[in-house]
Design a protein that fits this description.
The structure is a single chain. Helix content is 43%, strand content 17%. The radius of gyration is 21 Å and the shape is globular. It has 22 helices and 18 strands. The protein has a domain of 214 residues: Rossmann fold, CATH 3.40.50.1100. The strands form five sheets. It has a six-stranded mixed beta sheet with strand order 6-7-17-12-13-16, sandwiched between helices. Strands 11-8-9-10-18 form a five-stranded parallel beta sheet, with helices on both faces. The chain has a three-stranded antiparallel beta sheet with strand order 3-2-4. The longest helix is centred in the middle third of the chain and has 20 residues. By secondary structure, the protein is of the alpha/beta class. α17 packs across α18.
């Protein structure tokens, strides 16, 4: 079982070696453990105040209340400064995370940041956490952020780190595996310290390539001599994960404040899931004491996680399917390793053995004891047809328009409700603006929109949805293509060295 603590100096360890110990700032700087494992807190903290006390807080104060329990080597001034610079006017609503009731659930809108996807919630603050951590640890090297993206992390990371002094950022994306808007958002990035590279492969290939670069010790030594060191902006970085815990706590407090739920009443969270970071943050919120009944893991047709939760077997040996929810087109869910470590009783040897099996055989199976630790999770998946039908039916019923990823979660929740008749108040993580996937969204609403140009569809969406087109879309309508580099999977390391030379 997980342990809880309110220790003043929370330490982090590796999911593959419990002898590893470092501070939060050191873990943020490194991103990935030297042994290939992920950083996890030695003990999970509890919420320092009752949730009812958070009802009177704005988002920034809630963020400080939660994050200070994890980032214990940051001073109050440092952490509040990072939070203040992150959650400012770059978000188009002072609420930061507004809730919208539609179709029998509450949609937790996580897309009001600069790049109109939920990744902004963590990647708006990560650059500030990282540069603060560098100063705290007297780092003289330039920090090179390496990131693999299935579409949204890339642009959010680029926006966060663009022209940040003392950093450079390289983003790899599957060149044929993202939406047109996602690609344009990345390849038009103007930051002078940025590099965007399309990879001839899928997201898993990009992610595996980035991990290989991290683990290449000879490359690390060469770049250290040149004054560089690697870190990550993917959700494998604990500095990405901790800020995501905040919005689950905040959303619960809003429902409590509005008397939708009573004090201590449990809620469900439904999360469209690919790399497992977002739903893992919800799990951590629950472990901290947030009253949560079920965490519903929603998958698209790449349903490796659905199969895992239903059978206890993780098997990536299957066809990789390109869907209308590309940020979830993932077969190797990196953050699942943290959950595996926890449900194994924080056993690094057991976890390391399972991860080795995944590397060599492409599959592993957890024990019956570990399966029992997953009772707080439910898993459902949505086909492409069901995803489109959810977008259309919700719009017809309520006038509310959701993107394809959110629709996967909405369709999954409908199946869960049909199976269980569970009346628990439920929040669905709405992870991207529908404008980011206007083609798929509009054709789901009316087949007559099929074949129209992406930006024309954005204009139509604005009219029928009665919502203003986000600046993130207007900015790329006629923007210059700056990043044109593409490479094979085995050429990723060479491109990084070329950029840094």
């Amino acid at each position: 079982m997980l342990q809880y603590s309110i220790e003043m100096n929370l330490q982090y360890t590796s999911t593959r070696d419990n002898k590893v110990r470092c501070s939060a700032s050191e873990a943020i700087l490194k991103g990935l453990c030297d042994d290939g494992g992920l950083f996890v807190p030695v003990e999970l903290p509890v919420l320092p105040v009752p949730v009812r006390d958070i009802c009177g807080m704005d988002y920034k104060e809630c963020a400080y209340t939660v994050m200070k329990e994890f980032l214990t080597d940051f001073t109050e001034e440092e952490l509040r400064g990072c939070i203040s610079r992150a959650y400012d006017e770059k978000f188009d609503t002072p609420e930061i995370v507004p809730l919208r009731q539609a179709g029998g659930a509450f949609y937790m809108e996580l897309f009001h940041g600069k790049t109109i996807a939920f990744k902004d919630m963590a990647l708006s603050i990560l650059p500030h956490l990282m540069t603060t951590a560098a100063k705290k640890n007297n780092v003289k090297n330039e920090i090179v952020i390496l990131t693999a993206t299935s579409g949204d992390t890339g642009k959010a990371a680029l926006a966060g780190f663009a022209d940040v002094k003392g950093t450079r950022i390289v983003v790899f994306y599957p060149k044929d595996g993202v939406s047109r808007v996602q690609k344009l958002q990345m390849v038009t990035e103007k930051g002078k310290n940025t590099k965007v590279i399309g990879v001839d492969g899928n997201f898993d290939d990009c992610q595996t390539g980035v991990k290989a670069i991290f683990s290449d010790k000879e490359l690390g030594r060469r770049l250290d001599k040149k004054g560089y060191q690697f870190s990550s902006a993917n959700s494998i970085n604990i500095g990405r994960l901790v800020p995501q815990i905040v919005y689950y706590v905040y959303a619960y407090s809003r429902l409590l404040k509005d008397n939708v739920i009573g004090d201590g009443e449990e809620v469900n969270f439904v999360v469209p899931t690919g790399n497992f970071g977002n739903i893992l943050a919800a799990y951590y919120a629950k472990m901290m004491g947030l009253p949560v009944r079920k965490l519903i893991c929603a998958s698209n047709e790449n349903k490796v996680l659905f199969d895992f939760f239903r059978t206890g077997e993780y098997d990536r040996n299957r066809e990789f399917i390109l869907t209308s929810s590309p940020s979830m087109d993932i077969l190797i869910s990196s953050n699942l390793e943290r959950l595996i470590y926890h449900i194994a009783g924080n056993d690094p040897e057991k976890n390391a053995a399972l991860m080795a099996a995944l590397r060599t055989d492409g599959r592993y199976e957890i024990t019956s004891f570990m399966k029992k630790e997953l009772t707080g999770f439910e898993a459902y998946y949505s086909s492409e047809k069901e995803t489109a039908e959810k977008i259309g039916s919700l719009f017809k019923e309520s006038g509310y328009i959701i993107d394809t990823h959110t629709a996967v979660a909405g369709a999954a929740y409908d199946k869960y409700l049909s199976d269980t008749k569970d009346k628990t108040v439920t929040l669905i993580a709405s992870t991207a603006s529908p404008f980011k996937f206007a083609g798929s969204v509009m054709s789901a609403i009316d087949r007559g929109y099929e074949g129209k140009e992406e930006f024309e569809l954005a204009d139509e969406l604005s009219v029928i949805g009665k919502v203003k087109i986000p600046p993130a879309i207007e900015e790329i309508r006629n923007a210059e293509i700056i990043h044109k580099t593409e490479c094979k999977i085995d050429g990723m390391m060479e491109e990084v060295e070329r950029f840094l030379s």
